[in-house]
Amino acid sequence: MASASMWVPRTKVDWFLTVLRVLALTVVTVGLLAFIAQQINVDNPFARVVNPDATGLTGPQFRGLVISGFAQGAMYGLIALGYSMVYGVLGFINFAHGEVFMVGAMTGMITSNKLDDAGLWETNFLGSLFFIVAVSMLVCTLTAVIMERVAYRPLRKAPRLIPLITSIGISFFIQNTSVVLLGPTSKAYPDMPDWLTAKRTFLEIEGTKIMVICVAAVAMLGLWLLVERTKTGKAMRAVAEDQEIAGLMGVDVNRTIVKVFAVGGAMAGVAGILWGVLFRSVIHYTGFLPGIKAFSSAVVGGIGNLGGSMAGGLFIGLAESTGPLLILEPLGVSGVSQLRDAVAFAMLIGVLLLKPSGLFGERLSAEDRA
Amino acid sequence: MSATVLNTVLRRIPGTWRRVVRLGALGAVGQVFISLSGMPVRLDVREIIVPILSLGYVTVLAVPLVLGVLLGRRPEHEEFLENPPGRRDLVLGAIAGGLMGGGGLSVLALLLANFDLRDPLINWSPQLLEFLSFGRGTAFGFGIWLVIGAGLGLVGGTLRLASSRTQKVIMTMALTVVGAAILESLVVDLVEGVSLEALVEWMYAPRGGLTLVGAGVLAVVSGLLSLVGQGRVKNMQERIQAMEGPRQTRVNLMLIAAVGVVLVILPLLVGKLTNELLANIGLFVLLALGLNIVVGLAGILDLGYVAFFAVGSYSTAVLTAATSPRIAPEFPWFVALIIVIFIAILVGLFIGAPVIRMRGDYLAIVTLGFGEIIRLLFLSDWLSGWFGGSQGITAIDGVDVFGLLTVDGTNPRRVFYLVLFFCAIAIYISWRLERSRLGRAWMAVREDEPVAEAMGINTVNVKLMAFVVGAVLGSFGGAIFVAKVGSVFPTSFLILVSIIILVVVIFGGMGNIFGVIAGAVVLIGVLGGPKQPGLLVEFSEFKLLIYGALLVWMMLARPEGLIPSARRSRELHQEEFLQDAWLRGQIDTDDNGPDGGSGTAGAEA
CB distance from A356 to chain B under 8 Å? Predict the structure, then answer.
């Protein structure tokens, strides 16, 4: 798909697309240049022309943006793994995966509050954190496995859009299950201990963000070992390559697919807790936007490509946190922080327009490489 | 893995009982879920039959009954009966299943009495315990659900043993009673409209719900009618279908004209609330017809259909309202509508062109993204100078029809006529397009894009056309919405609007005009739209949950919808059709090359 022919316009639609691509690149370039100009000198004539109210960013501000971008990106990356693995094996977007992440965040909220009531949250924070991560992974794994068993297995051979529509239904259902069981208001995690939220002397980074990045790295390492170094991982890769042949070679295809869902669910569970640690509040639609962003990450990294998903997550996280101030603010758009989510969606569209096969290449089975 | 452990345990249980245990456990979980969702307590206020049955109890009682029916059915394996069990087994199984299903609630009653989990679970309340124990103590609550479960399981199981004729009669009776209770406000309103209140006074209790006498009479009458009428309707259908071309068209036209006359007279007979409901249904019929062209005919899964609705609403608001923040040309509504159509075409092209080349599933997500972006832009401070941001645009005048009368929200009857007019246009457009060259091209693209392209169809243009037509119909919906509500806010255009319209289209039957209309009437009429209440007002908290479950269930059980389009259902069940054709010797699925099929058939002949 992403060959040179894409860039050579032939029909009117091609022309339109080319104009759109050029336009998008121009906006990004001009925005970046204006940003650089205003950073060199706020009264720079170029920056003034583009945005008369330019103020520029200070060093700590910029560093803060980058770090929170990294932390969120690590979280998106973990969710993206679930999208990527399922797409690699079954060839459809499991739209409800964002909701599995929400279930993880909710589970974490309930368990951590119970631990807080028991007084364990303050006295033994790391132990409690480990416990809520484990519980959340368990619940999310179960959710994902039940989802596969109930809704996706019967549709294995249906036309491609049918499981996608089903997953939208499941996503809707899980969201509203949370509303009717737990109530429609947003719910808070207990306070994090002071030693964690304090800014560290090293680069003035908040401890929570360091912790989020570390946890994500550990989870990612575990997954990599599982996929690359174990027999289960080999079976998963085989099934992703060609289900039929893998079955003939003695791989239990059904069980492997269940494991793929389980592993994706566990990663989403970890990400759910990270969300809780970062934002400390969770509501039933928590899963929607991170889900979309994580899907964009999976596409950016090349869907089916696990390392790519993580890198894509970091890219999307960084772009989301710095993009509005780096590109839109210098262009004179007011109220950029409101447009964060619009920027995330625009990025998704941009990625699919510019490079639908991702930065690191897709890894899909032969029939899905359309 | 817990699933594996469960399976090993299940395998120890002999034959058919495994199914009983599995379904029974599922029923128990379902019962507990429904109870904890708060449905029974919240819906208890809505009576079905006055002293004995409320909608709340229906939600929990239905589970063991359905379990019984399911267990009473002989297990099928790829359309062959699996060692047919005896009647005794079936009934016993049904009882056991019902017992398990009811057992879930028994356990829940015990837990409710002894533990307090109110903190995460908001419906863990004394009211639920009172509901489950009928206000007579925990022990009674524990026992009664076992009895009820077994009893209903037995009823469900034996129902299956009866002849299909009896089953149909019983189904009709049950549906009529429940239906009459649900449609109460509509029926009362209609009867008051023709001043025949005396006829139904005995039927409904003063505070809502059927009386015992009313329910009994309804059941008997509907039972008799179904006994007499069985087969008649089907005969009629077959007779019409057997007629030759021109006569069939005439009959169809007469039917349509009759429905049209009813729809024109109906609003005159009913009150304000019912008219409001009718107008809402009509609005969603319009939107669903638009989405049906994109999803049903052209096979493009557009999850951002709300974008066109939003664009139609906002551009109408800006063009007609005196209060529009930046430019306020204050055009009359009909003049604005023409401009709105052009804007919708542009937006359709603008959204359609970038996504048209993408894979079907990427396209779905990207359109979803466009839907959100448009809402976020309308909401943003950046464009609030044009569209009012979160304050929206308010105090918009209604539609001025040639200076004679104004159509606005204060008079839902007029709104309904306006909606009806546009629905008629949309139906005509859909109907003509479906049978046009373009419509056939859409269906070809839907069924197999590469083949369609090879046949000389310009797939890009054809798909863009689908977007454009869908956008125009969606913007009609938006324009009417503005005239009806008199204001626009970004919160009216959430993603869930797109999803609900999608559920309506899929529930009714993708690609079938009548299916889509029926879907909108049933779903929006009974459950209600994203913000609009339906007949079951008490359901409003749970309708989104039900929409989600319905979407999943439809995809699993009946992806072609309530009233399927013949061609679409053939596509969705392609494998079965191929199998049937192969069994009849019409095709040969072995890879013998392109002429393998005809070759084999010829050899056999």
Answer: yes
Q: What are phi and psi of B81, to 5 degrees?
A: -70, 130
Q: What percent of chain B has pLDDT over 90?
A: 18
A&B contacts, CB < 8 Å: 171
Q: Is A217 on the interface with B (CB under 8 A)?
A: no
- ipTM value for the complex: 0.88
Contact B506 A165 (CB under 8 A): yes
A66-108 pLDDT, tens digit per residue, is 888 889 999 999 999 989 988 888 888 898 999 999 999 999 9
Q: Tell me which H or E stretch contains B214.
A: helix B212-229
> Which residues make beta-bridge pairs with B14?
none
Nearest to A323 by CA among A335, A339, A301: A339
CATH number for the domain running over A68-325: 1.10.3470
* B179-204 residue pLDDT tens: 888 888 888 888 877 777 777 777 77
For the record, the structure tokens of A10 come out as: 């032939």
Q: Which residues of A touch B346 (CB under 8 A)?
A: none
Domain extents for chain B?
Answer: 2-161, 272-493, 575-604
- Across the interface, do A180 and B460 touch by the CB < 8 Å criterion? no
pLDDT in the model for residue B188: 82
Q: Where are the domains of chain A?
A: 68-325
> Nearest-CA distance from A80 to chain B in Å?
15
A83 touches chain B (CB under 8 A): no
Segments in B356-458 forming alpha helices (H): 360-379, 384-387, 412-434, 437-447, 449-454
CB pair distance less than 8 Å for A169 and B362: no
Mutation test of the interface with chain A: which of B117, B346, B545, choosing the one with the most A Cβ atoms within 10 A? B545
Which long-range contacts does B465-468 make (Cβ < 8 Å, 24+ apart)? B465/B438, B466/B293, B466/B294, B466/B297, B466/B298, B466/B300, B466/B442, B467/B294, B467/B300, B467/B302, B467/B348, B467/B349, B467/B351, B467/B352, B467/B356, B468/B344, B468/B345, B468/B348, B468/B349, B468/B352
pTM score: 0.88
> Which chain B residue has the Cα nearest residue A13?
B353
> What residues have CB less than 8 Å from A272, skipping those under 6 apart?
A101, A102, A103, A104, A105, A106, A107, A108, A136, A140
Residue of A nearest to B354 (CA): A17
